[in-house]
Structure formats: structure tokens, C-alpha cells
Design brief:
Blueprint lengths: L12 E4 L3 H6 L5 E4 L4 E4 L3 E5 L1 H5 L1 H16 L10 E4 L2 H18 L5 H5 L1 H4 L10 E7 L16 E5 L2 E3 L4 E2 L4 E2 L1 H5 L7 E9 L2 E8 L5 H14 L3 E2 L6 E4 L13 E3 L1 H15 L4 H6 L1 H6 L3
Parallel strand pairs: 8-15
Antiparallel strand pairs: 1-4, 2-3, 5-14, 6-12, 6-13, 7-11, 9-10, 11-12
């Protein structure tokens, strides 16, 4: 069988869609979710199309880096106003996320042509991808009055084609979802595809550009994202970035909707109106007391 990574015709082994090291960090998460496609992957889900050399070599090294990266920075809970600096190896973390996206795409029988053009980069044989990549990050925080466990264990999520909504999806006057906005999410020219990952408190947004995308155009699009959205660009010429909250009361439990800064403000304002400006953290802490006291 042909190996998906080296294209050699050889014996193949099972490659974890979700790296085994990540699964061990979140043992309570026996499923990984993609709510856009209404799919859930078992934590130990594998795909059998990777040769032993790739699986036990480069891919294993990427998974080891990714596991240590998440374990070092993203197992803690963050407070709303907290800004958090992380250190990173740009190409290693990007290659690791691309590897997971490639695995996910093959399982879904999605178009994998972009990944195939960039296999040398993913495997560390090329210093740069043949197509441009943009990586952004943020911090997941529960901004709603409902405890996270009421939504199930959603600490591991892979989303293909999340929706970019600069103004959010909530109508300020009615505090209800604006269906028109939801159906007309922002798009960037020359963007081949995008993936969103949640791993604990980490949120990674990966843009994969068409081969013909101009450097100047990609640079301008990255600046737009940095300006309109709470996600921060991972600069390949640096080794650190300061991340901040990228979720609000209405999308923290449905991350496929990426709200811009304006949309986050509207969401939190609506929450304040609906709750009478009550302390949200206090409401979460007292959530079960309220319900058990009425029994």
C-alpha cells in the first residue's frame, strides 16, 4: 500500500488521527468533535495508510513536540483579562498542526491535494512550504454562566472551515442569532482552506493559501485578522507570542463560529443584559446549587 506521507509502496501501520500523547493529556475526552460536519472521532481513532518509518520517525517527533507544547502551556484555566506569553518553534508547531489536519482530511475523504503539494515541508525535507501558511492562536475560556461540563468534554476539537464573523452572529437588539450574518461569513481570496483546533485551552487557527497567493496579499490578510479578530499571528521570524481570550459567551461552546472583537463585545453585552449584570463566574460556581436547591 502507498504511504500517505512518503508515497512509498510498503507495509503500512496505524497512525493516530489525534496523537496518542494528546489523548493521554485529556483522558476524559474519549471523543474529538467536529460540529460543522456533525462528526465525532473516537480518541483512539486511527488511519491505516502510513509506513513504519514515517510513523515512528518524523511524525512521532512532531507528536512529541506537540504533546510537550500543549502540556507546558495549555492545561491550565485562564481568567478573562489574562494575557499569556508562550514560546514556540514556528515550523515544528506548524508542521504538527498540518499533519493533524492532513490526517483528519483523509479520514473525511476530503480534498488532500494541498497537503500532498506540501508533504516535503510537513516531513521536514523542505525549509518552507510550497504554499503559504498562516498560523494564529488564542486562549479558550468559558465566558458563559454554564459550567463547561454541561456541554460534555470538548477539550479536543478539530474544525474544518470554521466561519469568520467579524461582527459576531448575535443581534444586539434581540440577543438572538442573525441567520443572514451566519450564512454570509467573511472569506479571503486565495485561501484554499482553514482549520481550527482546540486542545485544552489552546486555540489554533490555520490558514492554508493557494499556491498562487501573493506574499503581499497574504501579509495584508494576516494584518486584517490580527486587527479584527482576537487571534494572534505566530510570526515565523520570532519564537514567542502573547495570546489572549478568543471566545465569548455565545461561541465558547461552539468554536466553529469565530467572532471578531466587535462580535465578542456584542455577545458579552447581550449576556450582561440577559443576566442583569450578574457575576458570571459566580453564576457558574453556583450553577448546581441553584438547581439542587429547587429539588
Amino acid at each position: 500500500m502507498i504511504c500517505a506521507y512518503c508515497n512509498n509502496d510498503t507495509k503500512v501501520t496505524r497512525e493516530h488521527i489525534i496523537p496518542a500523547g494528546i489523548i493521554r493529556l485529556f483522558p476524559e475526552c474519549d471523543l474529538a468533535f467536529d460540529f460543522v460536519r456533525k462528526k465525532a472521532y473516537p480518541g483512539e481513532a486511527v488511519i491505516k495508510d502510513v509506513c513504519p518509518n514515517c510513523n515512528g520517525g518524523v511524525l512521532s517527533s512532531l507528536d512529541s513536540y506537540g504533546k510537550n507544547f500543549v502540556e507546558t502551556y495549555f492545561l491550565q484555566d485562564f481568567s478573562e483579562d489574562m494575557k499569556f506569553e508562550i514560546k514556540y518553534d514556528y515550523h515544528t508547531v506548524t508542521r504538527w498542526l498540518l499533519k493533524m489536519a492532513f490526517n483528519s482530511a483523509r479520514v473525511e475523504n476530503a480534498d488532500v491535494s494541498w497537503f500532498q503539494k506540501n508533504l516535503d515541508y510537513i516531513m521536514g525535507k523542505a525549509c518552507l512550504p510550497s504554499c503559504k501558511v498562516s498560523l494564529f492562536g488564542g486562549l479558550w475560556m468559558n465566558m458563559s454562566p454554564v459550567p463547561s461540563q454541561e456541554y460534555g468534554n470538548l477539550k479536543i476539537q478539530f474544525i474544518r472551515e470554521p466561519k469568520l464573523l467579524p461582527g459576531g452572529v448575535i443581534n444586539y437588539e434581540t440577543c438572538q442569532v442573525n441567520e443572514y450574518i451566519l450564512e454570509n461569513a467573511a472569506e479571503f481570496p486565495d485561501l484554499h482552506s482553514k482549520y481550527l483546533f482546540r486542545l485544552g485551552a489552546a486555540m489554533f487557527l490555520l490558514f492554508m493559501w493557494d499556491k498562487d497567493a501573493e506574499v503581499e496579499a497574504v501579509d495584508s490578510y494576516e494584518k486584517i485578522v490580527n486587527h479584527l479578530f482576537p487571534y494572534k499571528l505566530f510570526n515565523q521570524d520570532l519564537n514567542s507570542v502573547i495570546l489572549e481570550c478568543c471566545t465569548d459567551a455565545f461561541n465558547c461552546h461552539y468554536i466553529a463560529l469565530i467572532h471578531g472583537l466587535a462580535g465578542m463585545s456584542i455577545s458579552q453585552a447581550c449576556l450582561s443584559r440577559l443576566t442583569g449584570d450578574k457575576d458570571i463566574e459566580g453564576m457558574r460556581n453556583n450553577f448546581y446549587k441553584v438547581f439542587t436547591s429547587s429539588i
